[in-house]
Amino acid sequence: MCYTQLCVPCCAAAGVPDAEAIIKNRVFAFGDGLVHRGSSWFKSEERKKTFVEFKDFFAMMKNRISDGADVPYFFRDLMAMITDVTEDEWGTPKDPSTKLTKENTLRTYAKRGFSQKFALSIVYRLSPEMFVESLNERPKAAVALLADDYKSYDPTTTAANVAQKLADCFIDIIRRAAGLVPQDEFERQRLMQQAFDLKQRYGEYLRDETDNVCAFPGCGRLLSVAENGKISPVYEVGFIDKQREPKIDNLLAFCPFCHGAYLFDHNKKLCKELVYIKKILVAHKQSMRLLDGMPLEKEIIGVISKIKNLKEKDLLDPSLDPKDIRDKLIPDDNLVLYKTVKGYVDTYYVTLKEIITNADKRGEIDYDEVQDQMKAIYKRLKKANKSNAEIFNEISEKVHKVSLQEDLYCQIVVAFFIAKCEVFDAITQ
Question: For the whole model, what pTM was predicted?
Protein backbone atom coordinates (compact mmCIF):
# COMPACT_ATOMS: atom_id res chain seq x y z
CA MET A 1 0.00 0.00 0.00
CA CYS A 2 1.00 3.65 -0.28
CA TYR A 3 3.39 5.15 2.25
CA THR A 4 2.02 8.65 1.84
CA GLN A 5 -1.70 8.11 2.11
CA LEU A 6 -4.34 5.43 2.27
CA CYS A 7 -4.84 5.24 -1.46
CA VAL A 8 -8.13 3.43 -2.08
CA PRO A 9 -7.12 1.84 -5.42
CA CYS A 10 -3.82 0.61 -3.97
CA CYS A 11 -5.50 -0.71 -0.84
CA ALA A 12 -8.10 -2.51 -2.90
CA ALA A 13 -5.41 -4.08 -5.07
CA ALA A 14 -3.55 -5.22 -1.99
CA GLY A 15 -6.67 -6.70 -0.43
CA VAL A 16 -6.78 -4.33 2.54
CA PRO A 17 -9.65 -2.12 3.75
CA ASP A 18 -10.50 1.01 1.80
CA ALA A 19 -10.66 4.50 3.34
CA GLU A 20 -14.32 4.13 4.36
CA ALA A 21 -13.70 0.78 6.04
CA ILE A 22 -10.65 2.21 7.76
CA ILE A 23 -12.75 4.84 9.49
CA LYS A 24 -15.72 2.57 10.15
CA ASN A 25 -13.68 -0.31 11.55
CA ARG A 26 -11.05 1.75 13.37
CA VAL A 27 -8.16 0.72 11.16
CA PHE A 28 -5.12 2.92 10.73
CA ALA A 29 -2.00 2.99 8.59
CA PHE A 30 1.41 2.33 10.05
CA GLY A 31 4.41 2.22 7.70
CA ASP A 32 3.66 -0.60 5.30
CA GLY A 33 0.88 -2.20 7.36
CA LEU A 34 -2.58 -1.59 8.73
CA VAL A 35 -3.62 -2.04 12.32
CA HIS A 36 -7.07 -2.95 13.56
CA ARG A 37 -7.60 -3.45 17.28
CA GLY A 38 -8.54 -7.05 18.04
CA SER A 39 -8.40 -8.18 14.43
CA SER A 40 -6.04 -10.54 12.67
CA TRP A 41 -4.17 -7.45 11.40
CA PHE A 42 -3.45 -6.42 14.98
CA LYS A 43 -2.45 -9.95 16.00
CA SER A 44 0.58 -10.00 13.73
CA GLU A 45 -1.22 -11.89 10.97
CA GLU A 46 -0.35 -9.26 8.38
CA ARG A 47 1.25 -10.48 5.21
CA LYS A 48 4.95 -11.14 5.30
CA LYS A 49 7.10 -9.60 2.56
CA THR A 50 10.55 -10.62 1.45
CA PHE A 51 13.10 -7.91 2.06
CA VAL A 52 14.82 -6.80 -1.15
CA GLU A 53 18.47 -5.80 -1.13
CA PHE A 54 19.29 -2.56 -2.94
CA LYS A 55 21.77 -4.32 -5.24
CA ASP A 56 18.98 -6.63 -6.43
CA PHE A 57 16.48 -3.79 -6.71
CA PHE A 58 18.97 -1.70 -8.67
CA ALA A 59 19.85 -4.55 -11.04
CA MET A 60 16.17 -5.31 -11.68
CA MET A 61 15.33 -1.67 -12.43
CA LYS A 62 18.43 -1.09 -14.56
CA ASN A 63 17.74 -4.20 -16.60
CA ARG A 64 14.27 -2.97 -17.57
CA ILE A 65 14.25 0.83 -17.72
CA SER A 66 17.84 2.14 -18.02
CA ASP A 67 17.87 2.25 -21.85
CA GLY A 68 21.50 1.14 -21.73
CA ALA A 69 22.69 3.90 -19.39
CA ASP A 70 25.81 3.18 -17.34
CA VAL A 71 25.62 2.54 -13.59
CA PRO A 72 26.43 6.08 -12.30
CA TYR A 73 23.99 7.71 -14.72
CA PHE A 74 21.17 5.33 -13.90
CA PHE A 75 21.87 5.58 -10.16
CA ARG A 76 21.32 9.35 -10.37
CA ASP A 77 18.22 8.81 -12.50
CA LEU A 78 16.82 6.36 -9.97
CA MET A 79 17.45 8.75 -7.07
CA ALA A 80 15.78 11.56 -8.98
CA MET A 81 12.69 9.37 -9.44
CA ILE A 82 12.19 8.95 -5.68
CA THR A 83 13.17 12.37 -4.35
CA ASP A 84 11.06 15.53 -4.19
CA VAL A 85 13.72 17.56 -6.01
CA THR A 86 12.20 19.12 -9.11
CA GLU A 87 13.71 18.73 -12.55
CA ASP A 88 14.69 22.40 -12.57
CA GLU A 89 16.77 21.81 -9.44
CA TRP A 90 18.67 18.79 -10.70
CA GLY A 91 22.37 19.47 -10.61
CA THR A 92 22.13 21.90 -7.68
CA PRO A 93 23.74 21.25 -4.27
CA LYS A 94 20.27 20.39 -2.92
CA ASP A 95 19.81 17.44 -5.23
CA PRO A 96 20.75 14.23 -3.36
CA SER A 97 21.68 12.56 -6.66
CA THR A 98 24.50 15.04 -7.29
CA LYS A 99 25.99 15.09 -3.79
CA LEU A 100 27.97 12.01 -4.80
CA THR A 101 30.48 13.29 -7.32
CA LYS A 102 32.72 10.21 -7.52
CA GLU A 103 31.37 7.62 -9.95
CA ASN A 104 33.22 4.82 -8.15
CA THR A 105 31.15 5.59 -5.06
CA LEU A 106 27.97 5.21 -7.07
CA ARG A 107 29.16 1.91 -8.49
CA THR A 108 29.92 0.69 -4.97
CA TYR A 109 26.43 1.69 -3.79
CA ALA A 110 24.87 -0.16 -6.74
CA LYS A 111 26.75 -3.33 -5.78
CA ARG A 112 26.64 -3.20 -1.99
CA GLY A 113 23.88 -0.76 -1.08
CA PHE A 114 24.28 2.85 -0.04
CA SER A 115 25.62 4.10 3.27
CA GLN A 116 23.55 5.11 6.26
CA LYS A 117 24.79 8.68 5.87
CA PHE A 118 23.50 8.83 2.31
CA ALA A 119 20.18 7.22 3.25
CA LEU A 120 19.68 9.71 6.09
CA SER A 121 20.34 12.59 3.69
CA ILE A 122 17.35 11.64 1.53
CA VAL A 123 14.97 9.70 3.78
CA TYR A 124 12.80 12.76 4.50
CA ARG A 125 12.88 13.92 0.89
CA LEU A 126 11.22 10.92 -0.70
CA SER A 127 8.27 11.16 -3.06
CA PRO A 128 6.69 7.79 -3.84
CA GLU A 129 4.01 9.56 -5.88
CA MET A 130 6.66 10.89 -8.23
CA PHE A 131 8.28 7.45 -8.50
CA VAL A 132 4.95 5.83 -9.39
CA GLU A 133 4.16 8.51 -11.95
CA SER A 134 7.60 8.21 -13.54
CA LEU A 135 7.44 4.42 -13.74
CA ASN A 136 3.94 4.42 -15.19
CA GLU A 137 5.17 6.66 -17.99
CA ARG A 138 7.63 3.99 -19.12
CA PRO A 139 6.78 1.60 -22.00
CA LYS A 140 4.08 -0.87 -21.00
CA ALA A 141 6.26 -3.78 -22.07
CA ALA A 142 9.01 -2.71 -19.65
CA VAL A 143 6.50 -2.31 -16.80
CA ALA A 144 5.06 -5.75 -17.51
CA LEU A 145 8.55 -7.28 -17.38
CA LEU A 146 9.23 -5.50 -14.08
CA ALA A 147 6.00 -6.98 -12.71
CA ASP A 148 7.14 -10.46 -13.71
CA ASP A 149 10.53 -9.86 -12.09
CA TYR A 150 9.02 -8.61 -8.82
CA LYS A 151 6.63 -11.56 -8.51
CA SER A 152 9.45 -13.58 -7.00
CA TYR A 153 9.30 -11.19 -4.03
CA ASP A 154 5.54 -10.54 -4.03
CA PRO A 155 3.31 -13.00 -5.94
CA THR A 156 0.41 -10.49 -5.96
CA THR A 157 2.33 -8.16 -8.28
CA THR A 158 0.71 -7.18 -11.57
CA ALA A 159 1.48 -4.64 -14.25
CA ALA A 160 -1.24 -2.46 -12.74
CA ASN A 161 0.24 -2.33 -9.22
CA VAL A 162 3.95 -2.90 -9.73
CA ALA A 163 4.81 0.83 -9.72
CA GLN A 164 3.32 1.31 -6.26
CA LYS A 165 4.85 -1.90 -4.95
CA LEU A 166 8.30 -0.90 -6.20
CA ALA A 167 7.90 2.57 -4.66
CA ASP A 168 7.07 0.96 -1.32
CA CYS A 169 9.99 -1.42 -1.71
CA PHE A 170 12.41 1.40 -2.54
CA ILE A 171 11.30 3.43 0.48
CA ASP A 172 11.68 0.38 2.69
CA ILE A 173 15.24 -0.13 1.40
CA ILE A 174 16.13 3.50 2.11
CA ARG A 175 14.59 3.46 5.59
CA ARG A 176 16.44 0.25 6.46
CA ALA A 177 19.70 1.74 5.23
CA ALA A 178 18.99 4.83 7.35
CA GLY A 179 18.29 2.66 10.39
CA LEU A 180 14.72 3.95 10.71
CA VAL A 181 12.96 0.61 11.18
CA PRO A 182 11.82 -1.33 14.26
CA GLN A 183 14.34 -3.67 15.85
CA ASP A 184 11.92 -6.58 15.84
CA GLU A 185 8.26 -7.52 15.43
CA PHE A 186 7.57 -7.04 19.13
CA GLU A 187 8.72 -3.42 18.96
CA ARG A 188 6.69 -2.89 15.81
CA GLN A 189 3.52 -4.18 17.45
CA ARG A 190 4.14 -2.11 20.58
CA LEU A 191 4.56 1.05 18.54
CA MET A 192 1.48 0.22 16.48
CA GLN A 193 -0.60 -0.06 19.63
CA GLN A 194 0.87 3.14 21.03
CA ALA A 195 0.19 5.06 17.82
CA PHE A 196 -3.37 3.78 17.72
CA ASP A 197 -4.04 4.84 21.32
CA LEU A 198 -2.55 8.31 20.81
CA LYS A 199 -4.59 8.84 17.67
CA GLN A 200 -7.80 7.79 19.37
CA ARG A 201 -7.15 10.11 22.30
CA TYR A 202 -5.62 13.21 20.70
CA GLY A 203 -5.90 12.76 16.95
CA GLU A 204 -8.65 15.13 15.89
CA TYR A 205 -7.42 17.92 18.17
CA LEU A 206 -3.89 17.65 16.78
CA ARG A 207 -5.09 17.45 13.18
CA ASP A 208 -7.08 20.63 13.73
CA GLU A 209 -4.04 22.23 15.36
CA THR A 210 -2.03 21.79 12.15
CA ASP A 211 -4.95 22.92 9.94
CA ASN A 212 -5.05 19.46 8.35
CA VAL A 213 -1.46 19.67 7.08
CA CYS A 214 1.44 17.43 8.09
CA ALA A 215 3.47 19.17 10.79
CA PHE A 216 6.79 17.75 9.66
CA PRO A 217 9.12 20.47 8.30
CA GLY A 218 9.12 20.60 4.51
CA CYS A 219 6.28 18.10 4.00
CA GLY A 220 2.98 19.95 3.56
CA ARG A 221 0.89 16.86 2.71
CA LEU A 222 -2.79 17.07 3.58
CA LEU A 223 -3.98 14.85 6.42
CA SER A 224 -7.12 13.83 4.58
CA VAL A 225 -8.01 12.41 1.18
CA ALA A 226 -11.07 12.80 -1.01
CA GLU A 227 -12.50 9.71 -2.65
CA ASN A 228 -15.90 9.43 -4.34
CA GLY A 229 -17.14 12.61 -2.72
CA LYS A 230 -16.09 11.56 0.78
CA ILE A 231 -13.35 13.09 2.91
CA SER A 232 -11.32 10.58 4.92
CA PRO A 233 -8.70 11.58 7.52
CA VAL A 234 -5.30 10.01 6.85
CA TYR A 235 -2.73 10.80 9.51
CA GLU A 236 -0.84 9.52 12.55
CA VAL A 237 0.02 11.03 15.92
CA GLY A 238 3.69 11.02 16.85
CA PHE A 239 6.01 12.18 19.59
CA ILE A 240 8.11 15.32 19.29
CA ASP A 241 10.64 14.34 21.94
CA LYS A 242 10.65 10.58 22.38
CA GLN A 243 12.25 10.90 25.82
CA ARG A 244 9.22 12.73 27.19
CA GLU A 245 5.75 11.65 28.18
CA PRO A 246 2.94 11.35 25.57
CA LYS A 247 1.22 14.59 26.57
CA ILE A 248 -0.56 16.97 24.23
CA ASP A 249 2.35 19.44 24.23
CA ASN A 250 4.72 16.69 23.07
CA LEU A 251 2.61 15.37 20.20
CA LEU A 252 1.98 16.38 16.59
CA ALA A 253 -0.13 15.14 13.71
CA PHE A 254 1.92 13.79 10.79
CA CYS A 255 1.15 12.20 7.47
CA PRO A 256 1.74 8.41 7.60
CA PHE A 257 4.88 8.80 5.51
CA CYS A 258 6.68 11.27 7.81
CA HIS A 259 5.38 9.48 10.89
CA GLY A 260 6.78 6.17 9.66
CA ALA A 261 10.28 7.63 9.27
CA TYR A 262 10.45 9.91 12.32
CA LEU A 263 9.12 7.18 14.61
CA PHE A 264 12.60 5.62 14.71
CA ASP A 265 14.65 8.77 14.25
CA HIS A 266 16.46 10.22 17.28
CA ASN A 267 17.96 13.20 15.47
CA LYS A 268 18.17 16.02 18.03
CA LYS A 269 18.18 18.72 15.36
CA LEU A 270 14.88 17.46 13.95
CA CYS A 271 13.46 17.27 17.45
CA LYS A 272 14.34 20.94 18.05
CA GLU A 273 12.69 21.92 14.77
CA LEU A 274 9.51 20.12 15.78
CA VAL A 275 9.56 21.76 19.23
CA TYR A 276 9.68 25.14 17.47
CA ILE A 277 6.86 24.16 15.09
CA LYS A 278 4.72 23.04 18.03
CA LYS A 279 5.36 26.36 19.76
CA ILE A 280 4.16 28.27 16.69
CA LEU A 281 1.04 26.10 16.32
CA VAL A 282 0.12 26.47 19.98
CA ALA A 283 0.61 30.25 19.86
CA HIS A 284 -1.54 30.50 16.75
CA LYS A 285 -4.40 28.50 18.25
CA GLN A 286 -4.21 30.58 21.40
CA SER A 287 -4.51 33.74 19.33
CA MET A 288 -7.49 32.32 17.45
CA ARG A 289 -9.23 31.61 20.75
CA LEU A 290 -8.48 35.13 21.96
CA LEU A 291 -10.04 36.65 18.86
CA ASP A 292 -12.93 34.21 18.60
CA GLY A 293 -16.16 36.17 18.86
CA MET A 294 -14.53 39.58 18.55
CA PRO A 295 -16.49 41.57 15.96
CA LEU A 296 -15.13 43.03 12.77
CA GLU A 297 -17.26 44.81 10.20
CA LYS A 298 -17.98 42.43 7.34
CA GLU A 299 -18.31 45.50 5.13
CA ILE A 300 -14.52 45.43 5.02
CA ILE A 301 -15.08 43.05 2.10
CA GLY A 302 -16.06 45.96 -0.13
CA VAL A 303 -12.89 47.85 0.76
CA ILE A 304 -10.70 44.85 -0.05
CA SER A 305 -12.50 44.33 -3.35
CA LYS A 306 -11.57 47.87 -4.34
CA ILE A 307 -7.95 47.23 -3.37
CA LYS A 308 -7.88 44.15 -5.59
CA ASN A 309 -9.13 46.15 -8.56
CA LEU A 310 -6.57 48.96 -8.22
CA LYS A 311 -4.31 49.73 -11.15
CA GLU A 312 -1.00 51.54 -10.85
CA LYS A 313 -2.55 54.70 -12.35
CA ASP A 314 -5.16 54.67 -9.55
CA LEU A 315 -2.59 55.00 -6.75
CA LEU A 316 -2.43 58.45 -5.19
CA ASP A 317 0.85 60.21 -4.46
CA PRO A 318 2.05 59.03 -1.01
CA SER A 319 3.63 62.44 -0.41
CA LEU A 320 0.11 63.85 0.03
CA ASP A 321 0.04 62.23 3.49
CA PRO A 322 3.45 60.72 4.25
CA LYS A 323 3.65 58.18 7.07
CA ASP A 324 6.74 57.08 8.93
CA ILE A 325 6.14 53.78 10.70
CA ARG A 326 9.43 53.91 12.60
CA ASP A 327 7.46 55.21 15.56
CA LYS A 328 5.60 51.86 15.55
CA LEU A 329 8.14 49.33 14.36
CA ILE A 330 11.90 49.25 14.92
CA PRO A 331 13.64 47.86 11.80
CA ASP A 332 16.32 46.04 13.80
CA ASP A 333 13.69 44.19 15.85
CA ASN A 334 12.15 42.53 12.79
CA LEU A 335 13.38 43.86 9.48
CA VAL A 336 11.08 41.64 7.38
CA LEU A 337 7.98 42.87 9.22
CA TYR A 338 9.14 46.48 9.03
CA LYS A 339 9.85 46.30 5.28
CA THR A 340 6.54 44.50 4.62
CA VAL A 341 4.44 47.06 6.48
CA LYS A 342 6.41 50.02 5.14
CA GLY A 343 5.99 48.78 1.58
CA TYR A 344 2.23 48.48 1.96
CA VAL A 345 1.92 51.86 3.69
CA ASP A 346 4.09 53.72 1.18
CA THR A 347 2.14 52.26 -1.74
CA TYR A 348 -1.45 52.08 -0.52
CA TYR A 349 -2.02 54.28 2.54
CA VAL A 350 -3.20 57.48 0.85
CA THR A 351 -5.33 55.61 -1.70
CA LEU A 352 -6.86 53.30 0.89
CA LYS A 353 -7.65 56.22 3.17
CA GLU A 354 -9.66 57.82 0.36
CA ILE A 355 -11.43 54.51 -0.42
CA ILE A 356 -12.48 53.99 3.21
CA THR A 357 -13.43 57.63 3.76
CA ASN A 358 -15.66 57.64 0.67
CA ALA A 359 -17.20 54.30 1.64
CA ASP A 360 -17.98 55.75 5.08
CA LYS A 361 -19.64 58.81 3.55
CA ARG A 362 -21.82 56.57 1.39
CA GLY A 363 -22.78 54.51 4.42
CA GLU A 364 -21.09 51.38 3.07
CA ILE A 365 -18.88 51.02 6.14
CA ASP A 366 -18.69 52.50 9.62
CA TYR A 367 -15.13 53.81 9.65
CA ASP A 368 -15.12 54.72 13.36
CA GLU A 369 -16.48 51.29 14.28
CA VAL A 370 -13.81 49.50 12.28
CA GLN A 371 -11.09 51.61 13.92
CA ASP A 372 -12.42 50.75 17.37
CA GLN A 373 -12.62 47.07 16.48
CA MET A 374 -9.07 47.00 15.16
CA LYS A 375 -7.80 48.69 18.32
CA ALA A 376 -9.70 46.23 20.53
CA ILE A 377 -8.29 43.24 18.64
CA TYR A 378 -4.78 44.66 18.92
CA LYS A 379 -5.14 45.32 22.65
CA ARG A 380 -6.28 41.77 23.34
CA LEU A 381 -3.33 40.27 21.50
CA LYS A 382 -0.92 42.75 23.11
CA LYS A 383 -2.23 41.84 26.55
CA ALA A 384 -1.49 38.19 25.76
CA ASN A 385 2.17 39.19 25.15
CA LYS A 386 2.10 38.38 21.45
CA SER A 387 5.02 39.65 19.38
CA ASN A 388 4.52 42.30 16.71
CA ALA A 389 4.92 39.67 13.98
CA GLU A 390 2.31 37.44 15.64
CA ILE A 391 -0.07 40.38 16.04
CA PHE A 392 0.30 41.37 12.39
CA ASN A 393 -0.28 37.80 11.21
CA GLU A 394 -3.21 37.10 13.53
CA ILE A 395 -5.07 40.31 12.70
CA SER A 396 -4.48 39.63 9.01
CA GLU A 397 -5.98 36.18 9.45
CA LYS A 398 -8.93 37.65 11.35
CA VAL A 399 -9.59 39.96 8.39
CA HIS A 400 -9.19 36.96 6.06
CA LYS A 401 -11.74 34.89 7.99
CA VAL A 402 -14.28 37.73 7.98
CA SER A 403 -13.78 38.68 4.34
CA LEU A 404 -12.65 35.35 2.82
CA GLN A 405 -10.26 37.41 0.71
CA GLU A 406 -6.63 36.55 -0.05
CA ASP A 407 -4.09 37.08 2.74
CA LEU A 408 -2.11 39.56 0.64
CA TYR A 409 -4.98 42.08 0.53
CA CYS A 410 -5.83 41.52 4.19
CA GLN A 411 -2.26 42.45 5.13
CA ILE A 412 -2.61 45.73 3.23
CA VAL A 413 -5.65 46.59 5.36
CA VAL A 414 -3.79 45.78 8.59
CA ALA A 415 -0.80 47.87 7.48
CA PHE A 416 -3.20 50.79 6.90
CA PHE A 417 -4.46 50.59 10.48
CA ILE A 418 -0.89 50.38 11.75
CA ALA A 419 -0.25 53.71 10.05
CA LYS A 420 -3.53 55.00 11.53
CA CYS A 421 -2.28 54.11 15.04
CA GLU A 422 -5.02 51.56 15.73
CA VAL A 423 -2.50 48.71 15.62
CA PHE A 424 0.81 48.97 17.52
CA ASP A 425 1.50 51.66 20.08
CA ALA A 426 3.83 54.53 19.39
CA ILE A 427 7.35 53.77 20.59
CA THR A 428 8.42 56.00 23.45
CA GLN A 429 11.93 57.36 23.17
Answer: 0.65
